[in-house]
Amino acid sequence: MKNSVLSLALALLSLAPVIAQHKHGADGHKHGSAHGGTIKSAGNYHLELLQKKGTLTVYLLDANEKTLPITGASATAILQTPDGKVTTANLIPSGTEQFIGTLDKTKLFHKAVVTVVIKGQSASASFDLMSAKKAGGHTGHKH
């Protein structure tokens, strides 16, 4: 069972960037951020991830990037360390509009694939996390 979960996690990590990203128009577009996080396209939805003080907060957004209620939805995050090890975290509903998960503060994570299941539909997106950038001395700027 553990090997099949690991295989699934690795498959999702390798496919998520292709599935989750799309462009609008010739130049693409940047997503606005209603909650201060990073927004990625995820199927018919968008996901916004906010990483702060050892927690991940995820919002489900519609096509116009408006926050949707998460009633009846579930969410998980597959987290990857720089050495390629993966772990899965269940994201717990907090209120009616966000999921929250706690990060293991003893580990550095550089990628997260977040999946939300709502009304029988799955929406996934891949995110780069801040902890790996901080560890490498790359804070406060983008490349």
What does the model show?
The chain is α+β, with helices and mostly antiparallel strands and 143 residues long. It is 17% helix and 40% strand. It contains two helices and eight strands. It has an eight-stranded antiparallel sheet, covered by helices on one side. The longest helix has 19 residues. The chain is globular and about 35 Å long. The N and C termini lie far apart (39 Å).
Describe the structure in brief.
With 143 residues, the protein is of the alpha+beta class.
DSSP strand count: 8
Strand order of the largest sheet: 1-2-3-6-5-4-7-8
Distance between the termini: 39 Å
Helix content: 10-25%
Structural Rg = 15 Å
How many helices does DSSP assign?
A: 2
Biggest sheet record: 8 strands, antiparallel
In the predicted model, the low-confidence regions spanning at least 5 consecutive residues are 3-29, 132-143
- Looking at the structure, what is the overall shape? globular
Helices and strands, in order, run as HEEEEEEEEH
Classify the beta-strand content into a percent band. 35-45%
The overall pLDDT, averaged over residues, is 77
* Alpha-beta content class: alpha+beta
